[in-house]
Amino acid sequence: MVPGMTNATPSDLEAARAYFDCFVQAFGTFDGAKVADLFATPGVALRSDGSLVGLGTRDDVVRYYQTALDNYRRDGCRSCRWSQLSVVPMGRRGLLAAVTWNLLGEDGTALVQWRQSYNLSCFDDDGLKAFASTSHAV
Question: What is the pTM of this model?
Fold first, then answer.
């Protein structure tokens, strides 16, 4: 263990699981506004190509995710699932959580897989919100 780092507690893991379960539900609607409910602004996304996307307003988040959702749906995606959760506590209210995502076709087969990390924090009583995400280069 790195000096000064602590292990994730069961409540940290449960909070992260709940966040990603909500993400899967929001994703399944293919509605960018529902996905945006899980993000704080301002925020930032680091894409797998190394480019940064500033998400200064809720409208920015809605547009960013709606574009992605539309492309996924066009390419045959009908749902998603997460696996391989890892969590590192970051202070009293924050977590760094990483998951492996699978986009699933109509028959449930995986179309695409990648790993992504999220900086999560509780900003109010609405639970965890992501304020930064990083798509891991493959």
Answer: 0.92
- DSSP assignment of 24-87 equals HHHHHHT-HHHHHTTEEEEEEEE-TTS-EEEE-SHHHHHHHHHHHHHHHHHTT--EEEEEEEEE
Would you list the domain boundaries of the chain?
A: 10-135
Cis peptide before 3 (omega within 30 of 0): no
Conformation bin of residue 90: beta by default, left when phi > 0, alpha when psi is -120 to 50: beta
Q: For domain 10-135, give the fold.
A: Nuclear Transport Factor 2; Chain: A, (3.10.450)
Which residue type does 101 have? W
- pLDDT in the model for residue 3: 47
Cα(62)–Cα(57) distance, integer angstroms: 9
Smallest CA-to-CA distance from 128 within 68, 64, 63, 38 is with 38
Average per-residue pLDDT in the chain?
93
For residue 109, the model assigns a pLDDT of: 97
Tokens 């997460």 sit at which residue? 82
Tell how strand 128-135 and strand 39-46 pair up.
Answer: parallel
